[in-house]
Amino acid sequence: MAAAGGPGPTCVLGIDLGTTSVKAALVTGTERGLALAQSCSRETQAYSDSLGAAPQGMEQDVQKIIKALNECLAALPQQQLQRVTHIGISGQMHGVVFWKSDKGCRWSESGPGPAFEAEQVSPLVTWQDGRCSPTFLASLPLPQSHVSLATGFGCATVYWYLKNSPDFLKAYDAAGTIQDYVVAMLCDLKKPLMSVQNAASWGYFNCRNKSWNTDILKKSGFPVHLLPEVGDPGSIAGRTTCAWHGIPKGAKVGIALADFQCSVYSCLTERTDAVLNISTSAQLTISMPLGFQPPEAPDPSSAVTYFPYFNGDYLAVAASLNGGNVLATFVGMVAQWAQELGFQVEESAIYPRIIQAALAQKPSKLSVHPTLFGERHLPELLASVSGIGASELSLGHVTRALCCGLVENLCSMLPVQHLEEMGVRRILGSGSALARNEVLRQEVERIFPFPVVYGKDVDSAVGAAMVMFHSK
User: Fold this and answer.
1) What is the tens place of the pLDDT at every residue in 155-173?
2) DSSP 431-465
3) How many CB atoms lie within 10 A of CB 213?
C-alpha cells in the first residue's frame, strides 16, 4: 500500500517519552513481518527543581521534553515521515502534567514542517516523585481498584496539590500523562483521552468496569473534571490536525499507551516467556492466562501488580524500584570516596573497572540487600549489607554481591517456583543495565533455572508502532 507522501510502503511512527530520553522509531511492513526502518533518540535533560515539594519532589520541564521530541523527529528522513499513516505514542507511567486545554501548545513553522512547543503547561510530576508520604497516602480515601496507591501516582499527586497548593490546580482544566498531553496536542482534543493502561497507573481506576472511582473521589473534593476520558489501548484517539514534521495532516494517532506494556509488546511472542528488564528500575513479567481478572481489592503487602495489557489480557509484574539506579548510586559513592581521598576519577571510568573486578570473583557469603529506593509494597525499606568477612571486602566482591542482590530482590518478589507453576520456559533478558553488565547477566543465569535469551530488544517506541500496525 503506497501513501500519499510518495512511492514506497507506508510507515508507522512509534514514539516513547521516557524518563530520561525520547525515542522515535519508524516501522514498515515487509513480507517477513515488521521491520525497523529508522530510529532516533535524544536525552531530555528535563529534570527541574521542585519548588513546592522539595526535596522529595521529582519534576521535569515539559518544554524540554517536547524540544527533545522535535529534535528526534527532525533527525528522521523526511521521505519516510511523509509516508507515515499511523502514530503510536507511549511514555512513562503514573506521572501527571496539567495544561490549559485551549492554550496547551503553540504551533510554528520549523524546518521541513510545522511543530508545536509547550505553552500553558505545568511541570511533569514523574513516577519517581516522593512528595506523598505513607502518612499522607493513608489519609486518602480507599480506592476501588486492584492497584495499591503509591507516591508518584497521578491521582495521589492531585490530592497532594489539593491539600497543599489548591490554587495551583485552578490554573488548569486538563490533565494526563506526558504521552496523553502529546496526543491531545496532535489531535487538538478538548478533553484528553487516556488508555486503560495509563488510567490504572494513576490509581482510583476500576479496570473491571473501565471507570474512575468518581463517587469516592467526588466525596473527598477531588477535582474530577481533570480526569481524562478513558478508552482501550490500541484504539484511535484522533487524527493529526495539521502536518507535523512532514507527517501528513490526517494521520491516525493511537490512544497513548504505557511504556512498560509497549516494551513487553515489542518482544513477548510466547505466553511461556518471562521478560526480565533491568534499566533504571527493574521488572520481571509474565502473561496471565486468558480470561484472568485481577482481584477486586489490592493486597498491599503483595510485590506483584497486575497491569492491563492488550485485548483484555493482563501481565503479572514484579516491578522493583531498584535496578540500574542502584548501580549508578554505587558508582557515584566510589567516585565520591576517591574524591574525598584526593583523587579525581570520572564515574564513566569506574563502571567498567568494577565490572572487571567483579568478573574475577565468585559469589561469596557477602550479601547485599540493594533496596536503596524502597519498594512500592514496602516504601520504608532501606538497603543493607550482611555476611561481611575480612576476605571478601574487595571492590570485586562487593560489586558481585550487589549484582546478585538486585536479581535476588526481583526473585523474592516473583519467586522461581511461581514462574514454574505458570509454565514459564525461558527468560527474555533486556534493558540497558543488563546489556552493559556481564556480572548482572551471570547472576541472572545462575539464579534462574531457565534458559536466558538476550538481544530480544525491548523497545517501547517500537512496541507502540507495532500496536498501531496491528490495529490498522
Assistant:
1) 999 999 999 999 999 999 9
2) SHHHHT-HHHHHHHHHH-SS-EE------HHHHHH
3) 21
